[in-house]
């Protein structure tokens, strides 16, 4: 604002002339160009400088550019203006007031969680619920369902509409609960009901969720899980709370690009996980979950300083041989962790203890660990043949027959209701930049994960510290 004041001849540079005495020699066209570079949040203050500035700020070019640069609008805004909605109104009454809900969110639906992406789409702000592909087609694209939208169609005031149900848009509401949290409410829940009652609603939901009828799902345990999910999630059709989540930051040393992946989880179907890297480890955190291991929990933890060299294919087909390799590393890791804990305890009063803790915090590799993926040698392995050992079950039999690297890791298993959670050993298999797998040795099952390729705006974490805080909070939400 001080710069603008000097431009028009008011303020200290001209000994505080009268506010209305705007005698800037700059032509209006240049002022429009200058104002177009100023963030929209600061433009109201610019308008207070003088009448000339206030008049120039009515120029649509300024607000058109703000809509494009701040909110990534790709539509031809001139066409929208011809239709009666100005870029100024679009920015001031829709985009700016609801800017805080753009990005990725996790709905609070008990253990099931979810993934909501709120985006700007023309005259709308739309909240899309992302759904995994139908089980077990893990490499199919994600499905989307609109949950709400906000628009300026019917008046000069932003209108919130609920999109849930099968009777079209109806009245809704959005409230900001606190920072990085908001809630939606439906004001016409009768639009969610179907003429055939709950039975018809269940059949429709089942077709959307699983792509088949209950009769086509022969596994009795899976039928029970599906019915349980329908009963539980249908309680949230009128009001939902969402908490902000971020995509993980990437570094050049990462084994592969971090991000979101779809994975197979046995009778629970497909779930969404977030893969992130933390020094010498990789972590997969559930964004969607199930009654055994809920959303927000750390489903996989990979020790990148513990590579596994696979045996030849004949030996790899023997689950006992693979178990011997992985369990040997598992026992060694536990021994070293116990030795480290004892050493830290014994030297708690000594000068070396602080250094030991610093090394642990930074993922120092104890003993004779091999280098992690950040070393040059870790990136120079050729693809090697891969086959699942006999006796290991997989939801999807179509998986890559070559892999790049394998690492020791642990997977989280638990009883119904997240009872008796336990981290059990397994094998992380990197196939390529967009696919990886995990062999759960105790369960004798295989999960295949495939990357979400959707472009997600307003979603990246500002820094690693903020991202790690979010991960800790996610676990507390569903613990």
TrEMBL record:
Region listing for Disordered, in residue ranges? 337-381
Enumerate the Gene Ontology biological process terms: protein ubiquitination; SCF-dependent proteasomal ubiquitin-dependent protein catabolic process
Query: Biased-composition ranges for Basic and acidic residues?
Result: 337-346
GO (cellular component) term, any one: SCF ubiquitin ligase complex
What the entry lists under SMART domains is as follows: FBOX
Q: What domain of life is recorded for the organism?
A: Eukaryota
Its annotated pathway? Answer: Protein modification; protein ubiquitination
**UniProt keyword terms in alphabetical order:** Ubl conjugation pathway
List residues of the F-box domain.
Answer: 20-66
The UniProt transmembrane annotation reads: none
InterPro entries to which the protein is assigned, alphabetical: F-box-like_dom_sf, F-box_dom, FBXO31/39
Q: Which family does it belong to?
A: Belongs to the FBXO31 family.
The protein's name:
F-box protein 31
In its UniProt entry, the species of origin is given as Takifugu rubripes (Japanese pufferfish)
